[in-house]
C-alpha cells in the first residue's frame, strides 16, 4: 500500500502551530520559513483537516483560509466558548510550467594571486513553456547561479643565475670575494632556500706588513683574528633544563666553531681568558646527547663578563610529513613531500626510488621531490631519509603509479563480492547462501585534478561505482531485490572521518583518568571525560599518531601511546591503561640513596636506582639540600597485567633511519619533588643496577642498554650502555651470595620515563584473521579488528605458564587479515611465546578453541607444525576462564621444511608473503560471538570499511560522513527466545516508495531477572533525508516476530506520536507491527533509541547499550525488559497433545515397530492404486520429512484406535 500522494499535485501535510493562546495559525509565510522550497510560489488549492482527520468544513468551527496567507482559526470567534482544533494543511501546486536552461560556462576566478583560493560562478536562465505573462508563470525551483571554489598555482621562489665575482677584500694575507644572486618570487609570502651571496677565499699571498686590526680595547691576537684583553676573564655556567650541571661540554667561538676553547667542569663552569668586556662575544656550546646552543656574553662596567647556557636533550629527527601515494598518467608530473623535526633541526634530505638513492644533482631535491614527464619505469616505491647530528630517520614509503597512455584509469569490470543471504533464503537449484553482488576494488586512480603539484592531492580519486542495476534473488518462498555493481570508473574517493576513541583507566583497578590532558606533539588536543573517555579526530595525512595522556592531579604517570589507525573503518576503539604513581618516599638529598626497581611478593627486585649524595638540583642550577619526595614507578614485565600500560610502542630508530623493535626488561618513571613547595627537582648522574638473574636469554646481557622515551614522537632513544660487575650480598639481600649486576650511568633530564631494553633482531610475523562467526568462511572476514600480541618469556623448565612479557604490539586487520611482529627463535621453539587477543569496537572476540581436542581445521594451522607451536586458548585448562585469547610458541620457521613454509609464522624478511597469503594458508583465528543475528542491505555496504559506501536512493546509510542508527525495543513473553525481524521499505519518497532498504534479524535476549521474559533491540531504517539531501523519506517499518506470537501491547506515547504525525501506516495484523518511522529522534519513553555518530559501528553499539539499559543516556550489556519498551508480544509454545513417535518407542517398542511396518505396507498398496494422483515436486530433504510426518500420523491414529477397541 502507498502512504503518500503524487508530489507533483499535493504537498505533504504541515502543522507548525498548536491550538493555544488566540487559536491555531497555519500561516503560509511561516510554513515557507520552516520548510523552504516545499511549497510552490502560487498554490492553486488548499486542504485543511484536524489531526483527527476531520475536514475543516465538518468541524462546525469558524475558520479562515487564503491561498496568499494560509489558514487560521481564532478561539474568540467560536460559538459556545469552544476552542479551535489542532489543524494541519496541505497545498495543491500546478504542474511544472517552467524549466532551466543548460548551465553556462564557468566564469573567471575571482583571485589572481598565487596560492590563493577564489570563487567561480556560472549561471542559467528560467524559461517558460506557456505563452503567459511572466508574473503568472511559476518560478523554477533551484538557484539561477552556482559557485565553486577555484585555486591558483602555488607561489614560487627561484634564484637567478649567479653574478660575477666581486673584487677581493684584500690584496694579500687572505681575503674574501663575493658574488650575488637575486630571489625571483611571485609572492612576498615565499622565500628562496639558500643564501643570496656566496663567499670565496682570495688574496692568499702573504702580506709584507704587520696585522692591521685596530682594537678599541686590548690588542690583536697572534693570528690577528680578534682582540685580546689581558687579565680579563669570561665566566660561564652550563646546566640542563632541570638545573643539573652539565660537565664536559665543549665551548668554542661561534665564528670558529671547530676550535675548542674550553670545557665545563663537574659543576658545569668554565673560564675563558682574555675576553674583552667591551665587545659582545658569541659562543657555541655543545655536548653529546644535547642540542647545541649559541649564546652571547654579558658584561658590566667593572670589566667582568659572564655567560649562562641551558642545554636541552637532543632529539633525533622525526618525520612529521610523509610522502603520499600518487597516481598519474604517463607524461604527467608529480610532487612528493617530506618534512622532519628534531633538535638540532635536520639539514640533509635524501630521496630513494625502489631503495636506490636518487641523484641530487639531477633531481635538485631537498624536502620536495619533483618528477616531470613521467614514464612507466618511474613507478614504484619512494621514500625520503633525513639526518642531523643526532641521527637519521626514514619516512613511510609512498607508491607512485604511472598509467600508460591509452590505458584506462580504472578497470570497469567489477570484481566478485559475495553477500550472505538471510537464513531462510535458499536459492533453488544451487542451495547457495551467498550472492555475487560485485564491487569496485577502490584502489587509487588518475582523476582530473585541479592542480597536480601539491604535496597532497586532496581527496583524490579512487576506482568507484559508476553504475548499479537492480536484480532479484529467488529465495524459493519469496524474492529479495539487490543493487549490484555493473560498472566501475574513476570517482572522487569517499573520505571517512578518521577517529580514535577510547577510555583511559588505571591498570590496577580500572579507575578512570578524569579530565586528563591529551597532547599530540607539544600541542594540547583535548581532555578526557569524567569516565576517562576521549575522541580524537585524525587528519587524513597522519601516518603515526602519538598521543600523550597527562594527569594534572599527578596520580598517574604520563603515558605516551602510539595508536594504530584504520583509514577505511573510520573509528578504532582503544582501551588505554596507565600506571598509578608509586607513593613517594622521603629520602635525604645529602646521602646516597638506593630505590628498588620491581618489588613483587616472593621475588627479588629486578634492579636498583642508585642516587649519589648531593645530586638534586633546582631549576636555576643550585644544589638542593633537604628532604626529597621521591616517587619511582616501575612497570614490571613479570606482571602480565602491566603489558597494556606500556608507554610508546617499544621501537627505536637505528643509525640508518629504520625503526626496529626492542625487548624490555622493565621501565621506570621518576618524580622527584621538594618537600616544602613540591617543586620538581632534577637529578644528576645516577646509576641503574640490573640483576642478571632476571635475564633468561644470556645473549641479551652484553647488548643491554638504557633508553629514554621521547613523549612527542613515542620513540625510545638510547641513553647509555651497561657494564658488568659482581657483588657479594647487599642490594637488599640478607644472604651472602655472588650476584652479577649490569651497571648503567645516566642523567635524569627533562625526560622522566626510562627503559631497560635489548635491540632484538630475531623477528618474525604472525598471521591472524578475524571472522563474523565460528564457521570461518573466507567471505566473512572482518576488517578493522585490533589484534594485539604480547611477547612472553617462558618459565624455566616449562613451555607454558608465562613468567614475563617483553613486548606489546597491535595491528588492524584488513581485507586479508593482519601480520603482527613478534620475536621468534630458530633453535628453541619455546624460547619466545606470545599471548594474542582481538578487539572490535570495545568488544572482545573469541579465539578458536583448543579443547577438548586439538582440531587443525578449526584452529587454522596444519599438523605437525601445530604441535610445535603448542596452541592453547585461554580456557584450555580452566573452562571458567574467558575464551578471548590464545598462547603460542614462536619457533622461527625452517625454510627447508615444507610444513613450515605456509604460515602462520613468517620470517621477518617475508612480510609481503605474510600480507598476501591466501586464505587457505595457515593462520590463527578469532571470531565474533553474534549468534542469530543477520543484516541484509539491498545496496551492499561493509560497516568495517566506510570507503565501500555507494550513493544510492536505497542505501541504508544516506551519508558517509554521519551515521544515524535507530533501534526499537521489543518485549517477548514466552519460555524461549524468539527471532525478531525488521523489514524496511521506502514509505514516502517517490524514488523509494515500497522498495526494500534491507532486513534485520536478531534473537531476543533473556532477562535474567524475570522468568519467561526476553527482549530484542531491533535495528530499523531511520527516516530522514536520502543521499541527495533533497527530500525526506518516512521509512515503512514492519516488526515481525518469528513463530506463534501475538502483539498484546504498544507503547502509548509511540502510538500517539504516530497518529499526530501522519500519514499513519495501517497495523491491523496482531502478529506484527507496522509504522512509518518517526523523523524525530525519540527516546526511551517511546521505546525508540537513536544515536548519530561518524562511525556506524559506534552509533549502533551506543544505541544497543541504551536499548538494553532502557534509558536514553545509560549503557548496559544486561537486558532490562521492563524499561523503555515499544512493543510487547506474547509467544507461547505450541502444546503437543498426542504422544510422539519417540515416546511410543520408549514405552512399547515392539508394538510400535510392528504397527509401523503394517502401515508402510498399506501405504505402498495405496500408492500403487493411485496411479493418477498428482505429483508435487519437493526438494529431497523436504520430501522425506513430509512423507515421514504423514506415515507417523497415520500409524499413530490407527494404533490409538486399536488400543481403544481392545479396552
Note down, in words, how this protein is organized:
There is one protein chain. By secondary structure, the chain is mainly beta. The chain folds into 8 domains: 9-98, no CATH class; 225-311, Carboxypeptidase-like, regulatory domain (Immunoglobulin-like, Sandwich), CATH 2.60.40; 315-403, Immunoglobulin-like, CATH 2.60.40.10; 418-492, no CATH class; 499-504 and 523-578, no CATH class; 585-727 and 739-759, Chondroitinase Ac, Chain A, domain 3; 769-927, no CATH class; 938-1134, no CATH class. Helix content is 9%, strand content 38%. The protein is built from 10 helices and 80 strands. Helix 8 (1141-1147) packs across helix 9 and helix 9 crosses helix 10. The protein is globular, with a radius of gyration of 39 Å.
Entry summary:
By secondary structure, the chain is mainly beta. The chain is 9% helix and 38% strand. Strand 42 and strand 43 form a beta hairpin.
Please write out the topology.
Blueprint (H helix, E strand, L loop, with lengths): L22 E5 H7 L10 E6 L12 E4 L3 E5 L12 E6 L5 E3 L16 E7 L2 E3 L16 E7 L5 E3 L15 E6 L2 E3 L11 E6 L16 E2 L6 E2 L4 E8 L9 E4 L2 E8 L5 E5 L8 E5 L6 E4 L1 E2 L5 E7 L3 E7 L4 E4 L4 E4 L1 E5 L4 E6 L2 E2 L2 H4 L4 E4 L8 E9 L2 E4 L3 E6 L14 E3 L13 E3 L24 E14 L4 E14 L6 E8 L10 E4 L2 E5 L5 E5 L7 E6 L8 E5 L7 E8 L6 E4 L4 E5 L9 E5 L4 E2 L9 E9 L15 E3 L5 E16 L7 E10 L13 E6 L4 E16 L2 E16 L4 E7 L3 E9 L14 E8 L10 E9 L5 E6 L9 E8 L2 E2 L1 E2 L8 H4 L5 H5 L2 E2 L11 E5 L15 E3 L3 H5 L8 E4 L5 E5 L25 E11 L5 E7 L10 E8 L1 E2 L6 E8 L3 E2 L6 E2 ...
Parallel strand pairs: 16-23, 25-33, 38-44, 57-67, 69-80
Antiparallel strand pairs: 1-4, 2-5, 3-4, 6-8, 7-9, 10-12, 11-13, 14-15, 16-19, 17-18, 17-20, 20-21, 22-23, 24-27, 26-30, 28-29, 28-31, 31-32, 31-33, 34-35, 36-37, 38-41, 39-40, 39-42, 42-43, 45-49, 46-47, 47-52, 48-52, 49-51, 50-51, 51-56, 52-55, 53-54, 53-56, 54-55, 57-60, 57-66, 58-59, 58-61, ...
Helix pairs in contact: 8-9, 9-10
Amino acid at each position: 500500500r502507498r502512504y503518500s500522494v503524487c508530489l507533483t499535485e499535493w504537498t505533504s501535510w504541515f502543522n507548525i502551530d498548536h491550538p493555544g493562546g488566540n487559536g491555531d495559525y497555519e500561516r503560509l509565510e511561516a510554513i515557507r520559513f520552516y520548510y523552504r522550497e516545499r511549497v510552490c510560489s502560487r498554490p492553486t488549492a488548499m486542504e485543511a483537516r484536524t489531526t483527527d482527520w476531520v475536514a475543516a468544513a465538518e468541524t462546525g468551527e469558524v475558520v479562515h483560509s487564503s491561498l496568499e496567507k494560509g489558514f487560521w482559526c481564532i478561539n474568540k470567534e467560536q460559538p459556545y466558548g469552544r476552542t479551535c482544533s489542532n489543524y494541519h494543511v496541505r497545498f495543491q501546486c500546478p504542474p511544472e510550467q517552467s524549466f532551466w536552461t543548460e548551465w553556462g560556462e564557468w566564469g573567471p576566478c575571482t583571485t589572481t594571486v598565487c596560492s590563493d583560493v577564489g570563487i567561480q560562478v556560472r549561471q542559467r536562465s528560467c524559461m517558460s513553456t506557456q505563452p503567459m505573462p511572466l508574473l503568472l508563470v511559476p518560478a523554477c525551483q533551484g538557484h539561477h547561479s552556482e559557485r565553486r571554489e577555484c585555486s591558483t598555482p602555488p607561489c614560487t621562489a627561484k634564484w637567478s643565475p649567479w653574478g660575477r665575482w666581486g673584487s677581493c677584500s684584500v690584496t694579500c694575507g687572505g681575503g674574501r670575494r663575493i658574488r650575488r644572486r637575486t630571489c625571483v618570487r611571485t609572492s612576498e609570502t615565499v622565500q628562496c632556500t639558500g643564501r643570496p651571496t656566496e663567499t670565496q677565499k682570495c688574496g692568499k699571498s702573504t702580506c709584507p706588513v704587520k696585522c692591521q686590526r685596530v682594537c678599541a680595547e686590548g690588542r690583536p691576537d697572534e693570528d690577528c683574528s680578534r682582540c685580546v684583553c689581558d687579565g680579563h676573564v669570561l665566566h660561564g655556567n652550563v646546566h640542563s633544563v632541570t638545573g643539573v650541571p652539565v660537565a664536559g661540554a665543549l665551548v668554542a667561538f661561534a665564528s670558529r666553531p671547530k676550535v675548542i676553547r674550553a670545557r665545563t667542569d663537574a659543576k658545569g663552569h668554565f673560564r675563558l681568558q682574555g675576553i674583552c668586556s667591551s665587545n659582545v662575544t658569541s659562543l657555541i656550546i655543545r655536548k653529546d646527547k644535547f642540542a647545541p646552543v649559541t649564546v652571547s656574553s654579558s658584561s658590566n662596567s667593572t670589566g667582568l663578563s659572564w655567560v649562562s647556557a641551558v642545554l636541552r636533550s637532543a632529539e633525533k629527527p622525526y618525520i612529521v610529513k610523509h610522502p603520499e601515494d600518487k597516481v598519474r598518467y604517463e607524461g604527467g608530473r608529480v610532487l612528493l613531500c617530506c618534512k622532519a623535526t628534531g633538535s638540532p633541526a635536520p639539514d640533509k634530505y635524501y630521496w630513494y626510488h625502489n631503495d636506490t638513492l636518487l641523484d641530487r644533482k639531477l633531481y635538485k631535491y631537498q624536502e620536495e621531490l619533483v618528477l616531470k614527464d613521467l614514464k612507466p619505469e618511474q613507478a614504484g616505491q619512494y621514500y625520503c631519509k633525513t639526518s642531523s647530528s643526532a641521527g637519521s630517520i626514514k619516512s613511510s614509503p609512498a607508491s607512485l603509479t604511472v598509467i600508460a597512455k591509452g590505458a584506462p584509469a580504472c578497470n570497469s569490470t567489477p570484481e566478485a563480492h559475495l553477500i550472505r543471504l538471510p537464513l531462510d533464503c535458499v536459492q533453488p537449484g544451487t542451495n547457495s547462501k551467498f550472492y555475487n553482488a560485485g564491487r569496485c576494488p577502490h584502489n587509487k586512480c588518475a582523476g582530473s585534478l585541479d592542480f597536480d603539484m601539491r604535496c597532497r592531492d586532496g581527496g583524490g580519486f579512487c576506482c568507484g561505482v559508476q553504475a548499479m542495476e537492480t536484480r532479484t534473488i529467488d529465495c524459493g518462498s519469496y524474492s529479495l531485490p539487490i543493487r549490484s555493481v555493473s560498472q566501475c570508473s574513476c570517482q572522487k574517493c569517499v573520505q571517512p572521518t578518521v577517529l580514535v576513541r577510547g577510555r583511559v583507566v588505571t591498570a590496577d583497578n580500572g579507575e578512570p583518568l578524569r579530565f586528563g590532558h591529551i597532547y599530540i606533539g607539544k600541542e594540547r588536543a583535548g581532555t578526557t571525560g569524567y569516565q576517562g573517555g576521549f575522541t580524537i579526530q585524525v587528519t587524513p595525512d597522519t601516518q603515526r599518531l602519538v598521543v600523550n595522556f597527562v594527569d594534572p592531579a599527578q596520580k598517574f604517570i604520563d603515558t605516551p601511546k602510539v595508536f594504530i589507525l584504520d583509514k577505511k573503518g573510520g573509528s578504532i576503539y582503544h582501551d588505554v591503561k596507565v600506571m598509578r604513581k608509586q607513593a613517594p618516599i622521603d629520602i635525604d638529598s645529602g646521602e646516597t640513596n638506593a630505590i628498588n626497581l620491581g618489588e613483587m611478593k616472593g621475588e627479588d627486585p629486578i634492579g636498583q636506582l642508585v642516587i649519589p649524595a648531593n645530586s638534586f638540583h633546582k631549576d636555576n642550577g643550585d644544589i638542593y639540600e633537604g628532604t626529597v619526595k621521591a616517587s619511582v614507578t616501575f612497570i614490571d614485565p613479570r606482571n602480565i597485567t602491566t603489558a597494556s600500560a606500556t608507554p610508546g610502542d617499544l621501537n627505536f630508530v637505528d643509525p640508518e633511519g629504520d625503526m626496529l623493535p626492542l625487548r624490555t626488561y622493565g621501565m621506570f618513571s621518576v618524580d622527584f619533588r621538594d618537600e616544602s613547595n613540591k617543586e620538581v627537582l632534577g637529578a644528576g648522574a645516577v646509576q641503574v643496577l640490573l640483576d642478571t638473574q632476571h635475564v633468561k636469554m644470556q645473549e641479551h646481557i652484553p647488548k643491554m642498554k638504557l633508553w629514554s622515551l621521547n613523549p612527542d614522537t613515542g620513540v625510545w632513544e638510547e641513553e647509555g650502555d651497561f657494564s658488568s660487575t659482581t657483588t657479594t650480598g647487599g642490594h637488599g639481600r640478607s644472604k651472602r651470595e655472588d650476584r652479577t649486576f649490569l651497571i648503567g650511568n645516566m642523567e635524569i633530564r627533562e625526560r622522566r620515563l626510562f627503559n631497560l631494553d635489548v635491540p632484538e633482531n630475531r623477528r618474525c610475523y604472525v598471521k591472524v584473521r578475524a571472522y563474523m562467526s565460528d564457521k570461518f568462511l573466507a567471505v566473512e572476514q572482518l576488517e578493522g579488528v585490533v589484534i594485539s600480541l604480547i611477547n612472553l618469556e617462558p618459565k624455566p623448565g616449562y613451555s607454558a605458564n608465562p613468567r614475563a612479557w617483553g613486548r606489546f604490539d597491535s595491528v588492524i586487520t584488513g581485507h586479508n587479515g593482519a601480520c603482527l611482529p613478534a620475536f621468534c627463535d630458530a633453535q628453541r621453539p619455546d624460547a619466545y611465546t606470545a599471548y594474542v587477543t582481538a578487539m572490535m569496537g570495545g568488544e572482545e572476540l573469541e579465539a578458536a578453541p583448543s579443547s577438548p581436542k586439538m582440531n587443525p581445521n578449526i584452529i587454522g594451522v596444519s599438523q605437525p607444525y601445530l604441535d610445535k607451536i603448542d596452541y592453547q586458548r585461554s580456557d584450555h585448562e580452566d573452562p571458567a576462564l574467558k575464551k578471548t585469547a590464545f598462547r603460542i610458541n614462536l619457533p622461527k620457521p625452517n625454510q627447508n621444511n615444507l610444513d613450515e613454509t605456509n604460515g602462520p609464522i613468517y620470517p621477518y624478511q617475508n612480510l609481503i608473503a605474510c600480507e598476501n597469503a591466501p586464505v587457505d594458508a595457515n593462520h590463527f583465528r578469532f571470531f565474533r560471538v553474534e549468534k542469530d543475528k543477520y543484516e541484509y542491505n539491498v545496496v551492499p555496504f561493509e560497516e568495517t570499511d566506510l570507503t565501500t559506501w555507494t550513493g544510492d536512493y536505497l542505501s541504508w546509510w544516506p551519508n558517509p560522513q554521519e551515521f544515524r542508527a535507530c533501534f526499537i525495543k521489543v518485549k517477548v513473553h514466552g519460555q524461549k527466545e524468539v527471532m525478531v525481524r525488521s523489514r524496511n521499505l521506502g514509505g514516502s519518497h517517490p524514488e523509494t516508495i515500497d522498495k526494500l532498504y534491507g532486513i534485520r534479524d536478531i534473537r531476543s535476549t533473556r532477562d535474567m531477572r524475570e522468568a519467561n521474559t526476553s527482549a530484542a533491540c531491533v535495528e530499523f531504517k531511520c527516516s530522514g533525508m536520502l543521499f541527495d539531501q533533497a527530500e525526506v523519506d518516512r521509512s515503512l517499518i514492519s516488526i515481525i516476530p518469528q513463530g506463534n506470537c501475538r502483539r498484546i501491547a504498544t507503547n502509548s506515547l509511540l502510538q500517539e506520536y504516530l497518529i499526530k504525525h501522519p500519514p499513519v501506516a495501517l497495523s491491523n495484523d496482531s502478529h506484527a507491527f507496522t509504522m512509518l518511522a518517526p523523523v524525530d529522534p525519540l527516546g526511551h519513553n517511546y521505546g525508540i533509541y537513536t544515536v548519530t555518530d561518524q562511525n556506524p559501528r559506534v552509533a549502533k553499539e551506543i544505541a544497543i547499550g541504551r536499548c538494553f539499559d532502557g534509558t536514553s543516556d545509560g549503557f548496559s550489556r544486561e537486558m532490562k525488559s521492563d524499561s523503555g519498551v515499544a512493543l510487547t508480544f506474547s509467544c507461547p509454545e505450541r502444546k503437543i497433545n498426542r504422544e510422539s513417535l519417540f515416546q511410543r518407542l520408549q514405552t512399547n517398542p515392539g508394538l510400535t515397530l510392528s504397527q509401523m511396518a503394517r502401515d508402510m505396507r498399506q501405504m505402498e498398496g495405496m500408492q500403487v492404486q493411485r496411479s493418477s494422483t498428482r505429483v508435487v515436486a519437493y526438494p529431497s530433504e523436504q520430501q522425506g520429512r513430509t512423507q515421514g510426518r504423514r506415515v507417523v500420523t497415520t500409524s499413530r491414529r490407527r494404533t490409538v484406535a486399536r488400543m481403544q477397541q481392545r479396552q
